[in-house]
């Protein structure tokens, strides 16, 4: 995660976790979101988060002429 951040591209990064896995608070500054892959988890909600992050990232990359 630190290497992704070091690129300077501000790439949205998500972590998917199963069951009783835990994410160290040390990683939170490096991630855009955490998905809990549990039974009954809201896949449409997670998909919407990913799509919104991708759209925001794309808009930040485009020069004003293309917006």
UniProtKB/TrEMBL annotation:
<dbReference type="InterPro" id="IPR011006">
    <property type="entry name" value="CheY-like_superfamily"/>
</dbReference>
<dbReference type="InterPro" id="IPR005308">
    <property type="entry name" value="OKR_de-COase_N"/>
</dbReference>
<feature type="domain" description="Orn/Lys/Arg decarboxylase N-terminal">
    <location>
        <begin position="2"/>
        <end position="57"/>
    </location>
</feature>
<dbReference type="Pfam" id="PF03709">
    <property type="entry name" value="OKR_DC_1_N"/>
</dbReference>
<dbReference type="GO" id="GO:0016831">
    <property type="term" value="F:carboxy-lyase activity"/>
</dbReference>
<protein>
    <recommendedName>
        <fullName>Orn/Lys/Arg decarboxylase N-terminal domain-containing protein</fullName>
    </recommendedName>
</protein>
<dbReference type="InterPro" id="IPR027464">
    <property type="entry name" value="Ornithine_deCO2ase_N"/>
</dbReference>
């Amino acid at each position: 995660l630190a290497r992704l951040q070091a690129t300077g591209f501000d790439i949205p990064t998500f972590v998917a976790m199963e069951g009783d896995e835990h994410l160290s608070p040390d990683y939170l500054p490096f991630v855009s979101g955490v998905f809990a892959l549990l039974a009954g988890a809201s896949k449409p909600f997670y998909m919407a988060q990913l799509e919104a992050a991708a759209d925001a990232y794309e808009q930040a990359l485009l020069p004003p002429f293309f917006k």
